[in-house]
Amino acid sequence: MDSSTATRSIVDALTKAIVEHRLHPGTKLAEQKLADHFGVSRTLIRQALFQLVQKRLIRMEPARGAFVATPSSDEARQVFAVRRMLEAEMTRSFVRNVTSAQIKALKDHVTEEKAAVSRGDVAGRTDLLGDFHVRMAELMGNDVLAQILGELISRCALITLMYQSSNAAEHSAEEHAEILKAIAAKDEDLAVKLMDEHLRNVEEGLALDRKVPSNDIAMALA
Predict the structure, then answer these.
(1) Which of 25, 40, 89, 92 lies 20 to 30 Å from 64 when distance is taken between CA atoms?
(2) Are 168 and 202 in contact (CB under 8 A)?
(3) For residues 34-64, b (16+ Cβ closer than 10 Å) or e, as one string?
(4) In this structure, what is the dihedral angle of CA atoms 169, 174, 178, 181, given to the nearest 10 degrees?
(5) Under a CB-based contact definition with an 8 Å cutoff, are residues 94 and 137 in contact?
(6) CA distance linking residue 125 with residue 45, whole number of Å
(7) pLDDT, tens digit, for every residue of 100-146?
(8) 99 vs 97: CA distance, rounded Å
(9) Which of 66, 28, 26 is nearest to 46 (CA)?
(10) Tens of pLDDT, residues 9-42
(11) 201: nearest Cα among 169, 178, 162, 177
């Protein structure tokens, strides 16, 4: 196995353990323990951890090492409040200028979301459900809005990954389909209302008080 394949498999295994609640937020990820578990060098472990930092799933602390990120429920609520403000106006503007090509692009995206939910692809569905919102900004040709939304969504990505149930994810995909119907019908007020309700439902559907079992690395990755 080459180094890039090995790194990817380590990233996938750790992501899965975090997403499936087998690694508790705040768990220390000791490089040597991980190297021993995966049978690879610490260099490869560092490369994998760096990728997970970029995905905001873990954090690195100077002189202390890597830890599973600890999502803040307050931060999540603030992010959703900002998103509701931004996305109401984005939806309004999108409906006013929407084209058939843009509707087709969003329909294709919703189809992908539903497929990811159906096959139980937790990381995939989380990415796709968040990307629906960024995709709208991209289709409008507003790169600044797409970038800002992308950053906001990534800030609560771990919270969504860890605390959104498959049932809530399924509802999100259905709500995206309803928003799309309103957009296609050029019903501006309904589309804005549905977007606001959708974001509130996602936030309320996060089980932020869920108790996550803390296991050691070997048990969590078994």
Answers:
(1) 40
(2) yes
(3) bbebbebeeebbbbbbebbeebebbbeeeee
(4) 120
(5) no
(6) 26
(7) 999 999 999 999 999 999 998 877 888 899 899 999 999 999 999 99
(8) 7
(9) 66
(10) 999 899 888 877 788 788 999 999 999 999 999 9
(11) 169
Q: Name the β-bridge partners of 71.
A: none
Q: What is the DSSP letter of 23?
A: S
Report phi then psi at 24, rounded to 5: -75, 145
Q: What is the largest CA-CA distance in the chain?
A: 58
Tokens 């021993």 sit on residue: 36
Name the 3-class secondary structure at 61. Answer: strand
Contact 134, 49 (CB under 8 A): no
User: Which residue type sits at 14?
Assistant: L
Long-range contacts, stretch 191-197, CB < 8 angstroms, 24+ apart: 191/91, 191/92, 191/94, 191/95, 192/88, 192/91, 192/92, 192/95, 195/87, 195/88, 195/91, 196/84, 196/87, 196/88
Could you tell me if 140 and 94 are in contact, meaning their C-beta atoms sit under 8 angstroms apart? Answer: yes
